[in-house]
Every structure is written in structure tokens, then in C-alpha cells.
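Bench log. Compound arrived from synthesis this morning; before running ITC I wanted a structural hypothesis for how iron/sulfur cluster sits in the protein. Inputs:
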Amino acid sequence: MIDTRIDSPPHPAVTRARPAVLDAGVPADRALLEELMALPADAVPQLLALANDVRERFCGSGVGVEVLFNAKKGGCSEDCNFCSQAARYASDVIPETLQTVESFRSAARDAHARGASEFCIVVAVRGPSERLLERVCESVRAIKAELPLHVAVSLGIMNDDHLVRLREAGADKVNHNLESSRRFFPSVCTTHTFEERLTTCRAVKAQGLELCCGGIIGMGETREDRIDFLLELQALEPEEVPVNFLNPRPGTPFGDRSTVEPIEALRFVALTRLAMPRALVRFAGGREVTLQGLQNLGMLSGASGLVLGNYLTTEGQPDDRDFRMLEELGFEVLA
Ligand code: SF4
């Protein structure tokens, strides 16, 4: 169990972090992140409280809720070790063909009706083919013409031409995760490189699109990897950082890993907030299996956004439970 009472004397690292990040708005640097990563368990509630204050100051109490749409499930050529959509793993995902424009529109209507302000189109590919890109652009145009949704797309590795076409179709944001640190990335994926991921992320920013870039913790990376990962993200200045927790999928190489310790999951959410005080830090996949009854603490550790279940290949908890949690915590769901 995590003792969330703050009755221990202020820890010096938290005392140092408060004026720097909360008062001056300066993102935590490596030295500060290292100190906070090493905080003893009984001081972690102080860290969570600070991250919550930083979130309140720079992001307010509004929460952006997002729904993901898996527009082409499974059959991916890549070998990401956590992913049940990789064709090479004997997972329970049954590959599907690319959805029709009408299916995209119907999913967007459903997301809007569920209370989401953001709709993210996700396709399990290394990068978009011409046919796929055209289908996504046509769908984005149709959705933007009909619904007041922020539309994000996640289509893998992309170049400037892809991004210009998506921007001209009306896409607001592009998701492309770094997943982990540069050092650990080859233990996650060997069919493309960390540098290729960075190049796509930089191109997203250069083309004037919002960047959504985060990753997954609990894949076997060290605490140092987690800090390196946060600093790589910080340098990219993403508008949004989705924080996922490994939900080990049967049949994948990481299928037998344990879920991350709840205290480490919460610590990471808080460090993400301190590393990027103004970003939309989105509490995302794996939160239910990792935190279970402590998900409210995740939202109180600096998160300012939430992905509603499901998460492409795994279910989440029912929407009403998420909305009730947000209401009880005093968050305002953004329209
Ligand atoms: S994470 Fe993305 S690129 Fe990697 S195997 Fe899964 S769908 Fe493919």
C-alpha cells in the first residue's frame, strides 16, 4: 500500500524543486530529476503533491478526455516487444483491414457522444502507404467538417510530405511516441531506430502540427532510462505527453513481465509533470492494471488528461467510472 499522508518533514529535494518549477516555471533538469527519482517512499507523497500544484498552476483544473480509434488493427511489420499488433507475435489480436471513411466518422461521433474532446486515429503500421494516407486525410476532413473534435493521428514514421497533407486535411496533432530512452529503445524494437522516431517528431513540430509524444514505462528500463526518456521528451517540447504503463500482452516478448509498482508509476507521472510543467500529461493505457484503486492518485500526481478505454487492444474501465473519478477530484472535463 502507498501511504499518501504527508506527515514527514519536507524533503530537501522537494523543497528545492518547489520554487524552481512551481514558482519560476522552470522545467526540472537532470540533477533535479535524479534527486526526485531517488526520493524515499515516505517522501513520494510530497512529490505527488508538488506535481499536482504545478499542474494546477500551469494547466488549471480542466481535463482533456480522449478516445482512440484503431483504424487498422494488427498485422504490423514492426517488432515492438510490447505490442500485440505486431504480425510476428502469436497474440490474440486478429488483424483487420483498414476501416472505411464512414467507420471513421461513426467512431468520431461515438467519441464525441462519450464526452471526448479529442479523437485519435491510430493505424498499426510502420508508416503510411499512399492509400492509407489518403483514407485518413479524407476521414479527417469529414470529421472536422461535422464535429467540434480535436483530431490527432498516429500513423508511424512520417516525412514532411505526409505531414503537410495531414495538416491541410485539418489534423491538429500527430502522435508518435519515443516509447523509452535512447539506450533502452533497441531492447524494445529493432526494426526501426530511436533516431527515426525522433526525426518524425521533429518534423511534426517543424510542420506546425501539435506533437503528442510519450511512451510506456515498466518494460524493463532502469530509473536512469526513465530520466533520459523524460529529458529527450523535454527537448522535443511536445504539446502532449501520454504516459502508458506496460500491460503485458500474452504472446509478445514482454508478455511475462510484471506490471510496474504503483509507487513508481505515480512517481513517473509526477516527474513527467515537473519535467514539462505546461504540457498536457495524459494518463493513458495500463493505468487500470497498474494502479487499480489508486487511479485517482494518478490524476492527483500531475496528469491533466485522460484516455478513455479502450486502448487499441485492451479494455479500460467503464466511462462512467472515469467521469465520476474526475468529478470527485474536482476536475472540469473540457468540451
Ligand atoms: S507499436 Fe506500432 S509500430 Fe510497433 S509493432 Fe505495434 S503497431 Fe507496429
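What the model suggests: The mean pLDDT is 95. The pocket of iron/sulfur cluster is lined by residues 76, 78, 80, 83, 85-86, 124, 126, 156 (CB under 6 Å).
ITC booked for Thursday regardless.
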